[in-house]
Amino acid sequence: MLFIRLSSLGDVVRVLPVLAGFKAAAPGVAVGLLTGRAYGPLFARLPLIDRLHLWPGPSASDGTVTQAPGAPGARTRAACPPKSVRRGGLDRREARGYRERASEVGAPVGRGTAGFEPADLSRQMLIPSNALRTLREIRGIGYERCFNLHPGLRSGLITGLLGIRESYGFGRTLDREGGFLFSRHTVDPPAILHRVDQYIELLRVSGTPVTSSFERLALGSDSRSEMLDRFVRANGLEGAHPVALFPGSSGTRDSKRWPEECYGEVARLLRTQTGCRVVVVPGLGETDLARRVAERSGGAALLAPEWGLADLASFLASCDLVVGGDTGPIHLADALGVPVVAIFGPTDPAVYGPRGARAVALGGRPGTGRPHRGHSRRLAPPTADVTVEQVVNACAESLR
User: Fold this and answer.
1) Average pLDDT value over all residues in the chain
2) What is the residue-wise DSSP string for 275-304?
3) Would you say residue 388 lies in a domain?
4) What is the dihedral of CA 352, 357, 359, 363, to 10 degrees?
5) What CATH number does residue 327 fall under?
6) In this structure, are 290 and 321 located in the same domain?
7) Confidence band (pLDDT; 50, 70, 90) for 111?
8) How far is 399 from 271, CA to CA, in rounded Å?
9) pTM score, two decimals?
């Protein structure tokens, strides 16, 4: 049984309770997970996963693919998705034309047909050439079923390229890029349903009686780097269990950010009222934001460097509490069993909230389900509705 979830840290770790539920329902079935290469350190030793497949992504180091027109691997007009697919819509006429063009290069659209050479679609649809070995290895294993938990065109193409006849994916309600065309079976779960339960609904369509259960992510003892150890020693954090503040929002979702001056005030109040050590942790490319938060704390908070995912997970696992918005590190901390205080903005905690026993979600837009893809441009940041007092009180309760 193969599960696919390529990216978005929060959604990747949400796969864990699904795998736990599946293992409980079908203990004798081997489980494979295809996920992004960056998440390999998190899942390498997880007993829930029998085979871990890492999607290498684009060849270029910056995450882009640069190709001259007509060169091997260049995108051609014949296989380029229609504009409405890239915008998030797809009508019947365009869907039919897209199927026909994809069939010209051997894509297994048409609900699960197989028998083609993946290099054909790689040249036409920007499946990176360094991913072909991964695709062939997975195809060679002979998985009987595939669950694509990642709505979108790229994961849909991968599902089709794998040629697994019994493939399951989300319908157009969640997948607005046309990836559902490559799954034999699709499901449209209710809009106001937690993401984990949406995954569960996909499995139930296959006849598997799965129930989710919280699964704690365990890290290996050798997962810390020398860089993290130096930071801990230099700041006297050995044996301390600090509070981590994560003010970032994955770089592009400013509407998810709580005001930086509020984070600074929370750090100051936690330090003076509880005596705990507070560390501001930046996301990738967010050091300047984290530095401003540390400065606004008046010296109450330390500034951490930008860590890789393995070091970030190791540090979060050592914390007594993690505070931040609806972003990957909060969900990672929740999966590690660390108490979290999550500050929500335009998203619905009932759909995207942490599920740990000691998790608190503040704010958000309850009852809205899936946020509109243009919310960051059209809505005022609703995180400002959450007060410093609410956050400090929630932190104090979690630290008791």
Assistant:
1) 81
2) ---EEE---TT-HHHHHHHHHHTTTSEEE-
3) yes
4) 60
5) 3.40.50.2000
6) yes
7) very low
8) 12
9) 0.80
